[in-house]
Amino acid sequence: MTRRLVAAIACRNQGSRLYGKPLQNLDVEKGVRILDNIIDCLQGIECIDEVVLGISEGVENEIFESVANGKGLRFVVGDQIDVLSRLVRCGQLAQATDIFRVTSESPYLYFEPVEDLWHQHCEGSADATFLDNIVDGCGFEIVSQTALEQSHVHGSDKHRSELCTLFLRENLDTYKVDIVEPPVGLVRRDLRLTVDNPEDLVVCRIIYEAFKDLAPRIPVTEIVKFLDMNPNLIELLAPFTEMGYSTMYVKADS
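Given the sequence above, the corresponding structure tokens read:
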């Protein structure tokens, strides 16, 4: 059977600390948004066949339909709380065998190992492959469409919410899950590259300005080196890292 890997991105504009996180600008002058950089990076990864947006219901989220149309992407609109159902429907729409999952507010993906881990995922007939313990916001998950659908059927409301892969993480004896560690230099719990707070956005904008010639494929290894040379930016992130890592694998999607 030919495998089809579809990147599904759950999108919504709500946010108590920073409203409209996916649509915040990384480059204010050129209007490059966080979601733009994510989509453009994903579209440059050969093994990803399609990017689909899973948009939350609500007038305030209709702008994501415009984003999808502007980039020629397909999308679904679904329940605000049942994020998992939106990801499942993205896969069904695109006839995916597997879903590539990233969050909509994390602009800097660790993209380099995606092709190899996709091959490993297929060769090993894995239900899921998780890149864990990397700088918050840079990881990803590859999950079979079947496993996602089963999570929705057999999981509780908690599992059907923004905690989309928690059911699989809680049932490792039932599902074949490969948990992959990043290079040791990217295990940095003093750093975060996901935008939940205004300070996160400040840091991500500074990074984009420094590396915009490489965008959308900005290597996380280079970002880490840059932050180490700018300890004031690490200090800006410090108040948010402990909470971020304490909920890293049960973290809210959009």
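The mean pLDDT is 93. Try to locate this feature in the token string yourself.
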